[in-house]
Each structure stands twice: as C-alpha cells, then as structure tokens.
Amino acid sequence: MSLSRGGSLVILTGAGISAESGLRTFRAADGLWENHRVQDVATPEAFHRNPALVYRFYNERRRSLATVQPNAAHEALARLERAWPGELLLVTQNVDDLHDRAGSQNLLHMHGELLKARCLACRAVVAWPGDLDADDHCPACRRGRLRPHIVWFGEMPLEMERIYQALDRCALFAAIGTSGHVYPAAGFVEAAAPGARTVELNLEPSLVADAFQEQRVGKATELVPAFVA
Ligand code: BJW
C-alpha cells in the first residue's frame, strides 16, 4: 500500500490526469488551436480584443468535453475519497468535469469550470447556456454580458483560502499530472504543513520536482490506481 490510513490529504491535479481521456494538455507540443497558442486565447486581453474568438475556443472545448470520459486515475481518486477515514481535499486546475463525473465530491476547481459562465455585471455564476456568443446576456440580471467562468493569467484563482488552510494541516500532499509552470498551484508543495509527506506523480519530473520528497514517473492511469490501492 502506498498510503498509510488516516490523516488529512490534499491532492492537486493538472491536465496530465485528463490526457489519457483524450483532452490535450497545455504545454504539449501540439498545444495549438486554430494556429493560436492556447495561452494567447485564454487571457483577459484576448477576451477584450476578440471576444468572438474566445467564445468560439470555449464553445469548441465544451463540445469536445462531451465526447470524453473519466479514466482510471479519476476513478481511483473518487474511490479513495469514499474509503478515506480522514479529510481529503481534491484541488484541480482542470476546467473539465471529469473528476465530478467520476464521483469526487470534496473537489475545488481552482481555475474555474468549462461548463459554467459568469456575468460581468452581477457576477452570478450560471450553467453555460448552449453556444455562447457576444450577444448573450446573464439569465440572472438580464443585463450583463457573460464570460467563461475560467481563471485566466493575472486573475485570482478560486478558493485560495480553503486550499491554504487544508495545506496547512495536511499529512500528505500529492500532485498529479501538472507541469509546475503555473503559480500559485506550483507553489503548493512549499505550503504543505511541516512534516507532511509530499509526492509527485507525473509523466516526467515537473519544474518543481525537487521540492517533493518522492517522485513516481509514468502514466496517471497506471500510477494513481497503484498509489491509492
Ligand atoms: C501526464 C500525462 C499522463 C501528460 N499521466 N502525467 C512569474 C513568476 C511566478 C508567477 C508568475 C510570474 N508571472 C506571472 C505569474 C503568475 C501566473 C503564472 O504562474 N505565470 C507563469 C506562466 C509564470 N499565474 C497567474 O496569473 C494565476 N493567478 C495569480 O497568480 O493570481 C495572483 C495570486 C495568486 C495567489 C494568491 C493571490 C494572488 C492564474 C493562473 C491561471 C491559469 N490558467 C490556465 C488557463 C485556464 C484556461 C483554460 O483552460 O482555457 O490554467 S493556464 C493553464 O495552465 C491552465 C492549467 O490549469 C494551468 C496548469 O497547467 P497544467 O495542468 O500543469 O498542464 P501542463 O500542460 O502544463 O502540464 C501537464 C503535465 O502532465 C506535464 O508535466 C506532462 O508531462 C504531464 N502528463 N500526460 C501523467 N498520461
């Protein structure tokens, strides 16, 4: 068994956990969309400059989400949560809903959710209403325009207080399928409680691999079920 029973766990996931479901990661060599770098479409500046392009990008990603399924790694984490006798917080940087569909409950989407939109006027977060475009208005206040409920660069990630509180008292912090390029998530390993066990599970060592006590290198669908067994 890779985990000793009990205690508080914080598990961080990134795009690598959904790769084997068929969703592209961000920093892979093919991380392009209509010849735009993904990083160039997913920014507040891009939305300001060309909202139609940004809506199209997210409408397309939302549609492709409907064609994929949770994989063995998502399922293993949901199983772990059901069986775990202590506290378990799953923090995902992913905007897909594969952890939700696998059955994880104590789950925070720190970079937002692809299936939700947010009103620029009243800030209500609503279900994404079909194919969104620049003429759509908020169903709650009926006046504001809607934007994707996504945390873009330079914006504050969600639920930070809850995440840091959980890190502060955790007995184990594990990061799965994330490259360590993007902060604050890449710094969570440094915020884990003194004495916490820290483990990285990834296809290759991340940029912050040296900050972890342990490394498991390989595919999420193989590493994660073995780790939680
Ligand atoms: C597998 C696998 C398999 C593949 N099995 N593994 C200078 C220094 C430090 C920080 C900054 C700086 N300048 C600016 C900043 C801050 C900035 C930042 O970090 N920039 C860096 C680029 C330097 N961060 C922000 O702006 C954030 N906000 C912020 O800092 O607010 C201030 C604040 C913070 C804290 C407290 C108070 C205030 C916001 C970041 C928002 C990130 N948004 C995105 C886009 C979402 C939109 C969308 O989806 O459309 O989120 S960027 C993108 O990267 C996405 C991801 O969630 C995020 C992380 O990517 P991830 O998940 O790691 O994916 P990849 O592709 O990078 O890696 C995949 C990994 O999986 C790889 O390692 C593969 O090997 C592996 N893998 N197959 C296992 N089968």
Percent helix, as a range, is 25-40%
Q: Could you say how many structural domains there are in total? A: 2
Low-confidence stretches: none
The CATH architecture designation of the largest domain is 3-Layer(aba) Sandwich
Strand tally, please?
11
Based on secondary structure, the structural category is alpha/beta
Question: End-to-end span in angstroms?
Answer: 6 Å
Task: Explain what you see.
The protein is an alpha/beta fold and 229 residues long. The chain is built from nine helices and eleven strands. The protein has two domains: 138 residues, Rossmann fold; 74 residues, SIR2/SIRT2 'Small Domain' (2-Layer Sandwich). It is 30% helix and 21% strand. Helix 5 packs parallel to helix 9. Bound molecules: ligand BJW. Ligand BJW binds next to helix 1.
